[in-house]
Amino acid sequence: MLSPKENFLLAAVEHKKPERVPNEMSDVIMYGGAFESFENGPAGGGLDGFGVTWHATESAGGQPVPGGKPVLDDIEKWEDVVKFPNLDEYDWEGSAAMQAGIMGADRDQRIVEYGMWNGQFLRLTHLMGFENALCAMVEEPEACDALFTAITDYKIKLVERIAKHFKPDIITSYDDIATERGLFMSPGTYRSLIKPHHKRLNDAVKANGMIPFIHTCGKCEDIIPDYIEIGTAAWTSAQPMNDIEGILKKYGSQIAVIGGYDSNGRPGMEDATSEEIDLEVKRCMETYGPYGSYVFMGFRLASGSDFGAFMAALVPINAAAEKYKNIY
């Protein structure tokens, strides 16, 4: 029998049918993400390394969100205003040891994935606010491109440090460029203004011996071929407002899909019943699993800022995933 790590790689990287449907939430050791104070501010809220203010939420285990007065008002003045974190001041060895103690460190049995939050588009919105960022992309694309280049240069330096100190199998770059109705911008704008920077970051991940995934919430199905073209091995966290089954049919041999759970509907609510959760997991496994190149992932809301409460909310989802994973 394949280990969880071997089984996961078969589906997510080799794009083949595994022995059983992998589960992102149980088969993976997830580092990075909210642990990056230079990207998301300190625990409980505060300034990140860019000078953006973050606030801890009362849901999703206290994960932070940006707020307050925008750092950047005029995109053409970004070189005078935007500061980047000094990555050499960060305690990489201490952070790696701390995260291994919290999240686990069984590399032989489980995938090690590093979540690199706040991709190029998201960082622009954090600096300017969504409205101003979207206007800047239309009105001053050359200035946006220059800032995206600088953000990508910084991200590549981050990739190098992640490779050295965490040695993950996978780096997932988080860039939420879509709403539940569609992309924040036209596919053409994505291709001309953001895609080249996504590709350069993917290339750096591969050059440092790791596998690039991309996280994009919302309806982004129009640019799945672009994600394939830039060398992305898997798309996460896929939501069912996309035609996930159609994507697996057409592109499953080229890119894996991670997700599928209806986190926006009743199964994603805090008061979801055990029956609602069970039926949704079963739907995902039976609908998407047969195509291979699919990894289940599900989550739901949890009130409070306690990370333990957020993890506890996943227990019934993961139990159902264990129940239905053997579909082959």
Automatic annotation (TrEMBL):
Organism lineage string: Bacteria, Bacillati, Bacillota, Clostridia, Eubacteriales
Organism: Acetobacterium wieringae
Superkingdom as given in the UniProt entry: Bacteria
Protein name: Uroporphyrinogen decarboxylase (URO-D) domain-containing protein
InterPro entries: Methanogen_methyltrans, UROD/MetE-like_sf, Uroporphyrinogen_deCOase
Domain Uroporphyrinogen decarboxylase (URO-D) as annotated: residue spans: 107-296
Pfam family, one: URO-D
